[in-house]
Amino acid sequence: MEQQQSKNEVMKLLTEHVERNIVKVGKKYYRQKTGIPQEREHAERFLQIMYEGNEDYGISIKKDKTLTNFTCRIGETEVPRLPSQTSFPYCGIRISTRDLNITKDFQLKDQRRVRDGLTVEFSKLPGQTFHRKTLK
């Protein structure tokens, strides 16, 4: 069964994961303020699993859209790495690797083609008009 999450739910979970991670050192607990709370080995293993996909769980990734902020090889493939102190695209936004600031991804707008758009017509038969336009 396929699960869907809204963009807001995913962003809330990501924010909670990054901003509210608790680390235990000895007997004391600290809230992590810098870095992403994971070990490199876990990140590499997660990436490998996603690269391979898993039909039982319905997970896969588009390899040409994958970026990392560390050097990583999956089999013979060198995973594209972001330059340091930059931002990466995610769901129409860009997330800064330096301070996790979020901005709108204006580069995405420049890559859209006019023919990928769909005009809207007001008519008595909107369903038929939509069907006709999508099958052009």
TrEMBL record:
Reactions accelerated catalytically: DNA(n) + a 2'-deoxyribonucleoside 5'-triphosphate = DNA(n+1) + diphosphate
GO MF entry, a single one: telomeric DNA binding
Coiled coil: none
UniProt keyword list: Chromosome, Magnesium, Metal-binding, Nucleotidyltransferase, Nucleus, RNA-directed DNA polymerase, Telomere, Transferase
Keyword set includes Nucleus: yes
Cell compartments where the protein resides: Nucleus; Chromosome, Telomere
Domain of life: Eukaryota
Keyword Nucleotidyltransferase among UniProt keywords: yes
GO cellular component, one term: telomerase catalytic core complex
Enzyme class: transferase
GO biological process: telomere maintenance via telomerase
Family listed: Belongs to the reverse transcriptase family. Telomerase subfamily.
Role summary: Telomerase is a ribonucleoprotein enzyme essential for the replication of chromosome termini in most eukaryotes. It elongates telomeres. It is a reverse transcriptase that adds simple sequence repeats to chromosome ends by copying a template sequence within the RNA component of the enzyme.
Protein name in UniProt: Telomerase reverse transcriptase
Organism field: Botryosphaeria parva (strain UCR-NP2) (Grapevine canker fungus)
